[in-house]
């Protein structure tokens, strides 16, 4: 099923870890400008085991006044508690790598670092979404995260496009992350 021309098909790029793959659907990947992903995003699906027993996972991105990085706040609840937990960090663009960032925790988590990259950013009226690949760190395996502006998620058509693309990436390490994707409950 093709999407109406009003809603062009999403474009994807392979993760930088899959060096043998070349982007096929887009001649040159254009990551969103920081102001396009400023605000709240809900993680709808992930393969990061940290989120497995969490719900209502929301990220808030806000450009730092200096413009050098993006402040981010992750809010979530465990499945058995109504207490909202918060993780605060900053995302700094990686020079020369479009749509790639280095995350660093703040406070007690300042020793934690991670690298992530946007594999797809799709603008939709009221429902922009991003597909993100988080690289392996000392604390976690590589992971896929699907984020959307709306708790309700993205359209069936867009979700189908994401699933088809994830299944088609011919890179075993990436496929390990993609096979582990699970839904995150949003209330």
Structure description:
- The chain has two helices and nine strands.
- With 187 residues, the protein is mainly beta.
- It has an eight-stranded antiparallel β-barrel with strand order 1-2-3-4-5-6-7-8.
- The longest helix has 13 residues, at 156-168.
- The radius of gyration is 16 Å and the shape is globular.
- Residues 1-6 have low confidence and may be disordered.
CATH topology: Lipocalin
Strand order of the largest sheet: 1-2-3-4-5-6-7-8
Unreliable residue runs: 1-6
Mean pLDDT rating? 86
Give the percentage of residues in beta strands. 35-45%
Which CATH class is shown?
Mainly Beta
Radius of gyration: 16 Å
Distance between the termini: 30 Å
Shape: globular
Helix content: 10-25%
Find the structural class using helix and strand composition.
Answer: mainly beta
The profile of the biggest β sheet is: 8 strands, antiparallel, barrel
Topology diagram in text:
Layout: E1 39-46, E2 54-63, E3 70-78, E4 85-93, E5 100-105, E6 113-122, E7 129-134, E8 143-148, H1 156-168, H2 172-179, E9 182-183
Antiparallel strand pairs: 1-2, 1-8, 1-9, 2-3, 3-4, 4-5, 5-6, 6-7, 7-8
What characteristics describe this protein?
single chain; 187 residues; mainly beta; Lipocalin; eight-stranded antiparallel barrel; 2 helices; globular; disordered N terminus; Calycin
